[in-house]
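Hi R.,

Here's the chain you asked about this morning:
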Amino acid sequence: MLRSIFVIFFFQLLGEFLKKFFEMRIPSPVIGLILLLVTLIFLKKFKKTAIVNLKADVINASNYILSYLSLLFVPIGVGVVMHLSYLENNLFRVLIIVFISTILTIAGTAFLMEKINRKLIKNDRKR
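And the predicted structure, written out as tokens:
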């Protein structure tokens, strides 16, 4: 478990380094997770026991960390309460932004799922 958490944090640190070095605007954890994803996809071709065990351990550690995800919303809630006056002054703007971003997220997810379903159906017909 400790080794897999180290792997996750290593890729997050690598994302932080790349963000600082290349002065990117993408959050460093996102860069790290993309690198981890690419690495796991690349390692999928290898059938060595150590690599298979590492992938399974990373998945188990990720699920364990995700079980505590709700705790990460506590600081956000405290931040909102601390800046409640700003929120009250800009309530209409904030609601419009939340509404538009929600619609865009739903539309993007639906579009992506439709593409994936079409590709899966196409692949099933080829078999």
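The chain has a mean pLDDT of 89.

Let me know if you need anything else.
M.
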